[in-house]
């Protein structure tokens, strides 16, 4: 934990099933949470949507894989 910040390090495959669990863990002030995505290898559509919403609500995403960032950016259009 950084000073006043909680960091969740995610890895592997982010699927819709995990999104609900993540929402429950992060159901707080999004500005005090960082998701480190360095080890995320695959993310499905629901996971990308969740990440986009989290970022829009003020959560910081670190080490976001390029393909996930691209999907997030495309979804804004």
Question: Gist?
Answer:
The chain is an alpha/beta fold.
Describe the structure.
The protein has 77 residues and is an alpha/beta fold. 43% of the residues lie in helices and 30% in strands. It is built from three helices and three strands, in the order E-H-E-H-E-H. The protein has helices at residues 16-25, 45-56, 66-76; strands at residues 6-14, 33-43, 60-62. The protein has a three-stranded parallel β-sheet. Strand 1 (6-14), helix 1 and strand 2 (33-43) form a beta-alpha-beta unit. The longest helix is centred in the middle third of the chain and has 12 residues, at 45-56. It starts with 5 loop residues before the first strand and ends with a helix. The model has no long low-confidence stretch (mean pLDDT 87).
Comma- or semicolon-separated keywords:
77 residues; alpha/beta
């Amino acid at each position: 934990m950084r000073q006043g910040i909680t960091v969740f390090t995610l890895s592997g495959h982010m699927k819709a099933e995990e999104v609900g669990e993540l929402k429950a863990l992060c159901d707080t002030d999004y500005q005090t949470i960082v998701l480190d995505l360095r080890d995320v290898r695959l993310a499905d559509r629901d996971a990308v949507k969740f990440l986009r919403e989290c970022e829009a609500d003020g959560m910081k995403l670190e080490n976001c894989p390029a393909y996930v960032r691209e999907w997030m950016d495309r979804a804004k259009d």
